[in-house]
């Protein structure tokens, strides 16, 4: 059985199909159709709902795309939709702001915008314009235009975030805590198919031994598309989002170690502190809805050649801590990607955590080149971890995405860089060596020629950024 709060109503379910999405539940089972379906692939935000979770004695409100969130993942949480915002017939402050500032025309996108704005209202009391844009970048509107919508969100600045949910926060926290302590694990079973919600690494390891063909679900932002777009029907799904060991972050002098089930949004503050260029990349990964669910573990295990974090993890020489049954092993990221979407993860194995070594003398530059700034997949992603002494490159690890069938290091370019001055002239041989490292293909995002030229130009951009010549560095991007 899974148990969650639907606003303040306790819902207990046990015989739903394991791949039911929250959107499907809302529209067809709960018959609450305020939440809309646009793309069913996490891109448009029409289906945005808010999930509240008890973390460290507080409720954390996250806006997520319900079309790519599996229902079983709600176990122990509170689900809030646009139907829950009005109280005694009065509009919630975010709804009132949208009315006052004329933020809606056809209204199809409006429930999604309202829920993203509601999460912003609860989490950021006086959002700046940049924070508003970041908070709403995962919601698309085809007719109103964004100015009035952004104005509506900005008009909430200075409001306290108080509403009926603040009034009942303590009671909700207590109900969620009781719910989780009464029923720690969750399960949906329907016609021999299962969704499991384990709470420990031991349980997860044992479930994977019992069901070696099971699919792990972390944020589900990749996996759910195989259900909503490719209409696959996995027999067994196992959710990692409540497995304590996968949700921890350890920050030591030697390394930052992030549990494979930690969402990007949770990992971001510490990444910002230790690897700011990495954290800046996360701002460009999907939308806030995607980052609230998606994980480093899922990005790595998915092994997409255009995933954004593997190039950075390659540059930073990360180590994956993997468990299979009772066996634990460490796999260096260099040895993990074996072929197109093929990894060194053993059968019934899973990633517990990702260790990112700290190397104080290393300088990290990360570049994502895509057609749009927000919520777009990379044509090329490059991460350069360099040690530069007296103007010369002493050590180099270059990770690239979009250049080969897997995320990959540019080994020849690295060799060509080492010992050279890190200047426009000093990187020419490395730029040429990139053509030996990679023969990228043409696809819908870019041609191979373009990809190679961009990758070569990104080395130049790193030189300019090193010289703190941001203007020149930006010009390189325009040429790229
Ligand atoms: C709208 C949208 C925009 C996106 N934009 C980007 C983008 O800009 N850049 C980018 O890189 N990606 C992007 N993605 C893809 C996706 O969000 C990321 O790859 C994300 O990191 C996947 O993490 P997840 O936790 O959601 O993975 P899931 O979907 O839960 O899992 C992905 C795969 O990893 C496996 N897995 C999960 N956890 C583990 C584990 N602990 N051990 C072993 N295997 C595991 C799953 O079984 C599955 O095969 C986008 C997706 C959407 C829907
Ligand atoms: S329907 Fe488009 S993001 Fe869910
Ligand atoms: S109001 Fe019509 S799509 Fe936004």
UniProtKB/TrEMBL annotation:
Domain annotation FAD-binding PCMH-type: ranges: 188-361
Species annotation: Rhodanobacter aciditrophus
Gene name, Swiss-Prot/TrEMBL: xdhA
Pfam families according to UniProt: CO_deh_flav_C, FAD_binding_5, Fer2, Fer2_2
Residue stretches making up the 2Fe-2S ferredoxin-type domain: 1-85
Gene3D superfamilies attached to this UniProt entry: 3.10.20.30, 3.30.465.10, [2Fe-2S]-binding domain, CO dehydrogenase flavoprotein, C-terminal domain, Uridine Diphospho-n-acetylenolpyruvylglucosamine Reductase, domain 2
CDD domains: fer2 (cd00207)
NCBIfam families, sorted: xanthine_xdhA
The UniProt record lists the keyword Iron: yes
Enzyme Commission identifier(s): 1.17.1.4
Name this polypeptide is given: Xanthine dehydrogenase small subunit
Keyword Oxidoreductase annotated: yes
One annotated GO molecular function: xanthine dehydrogenase activity
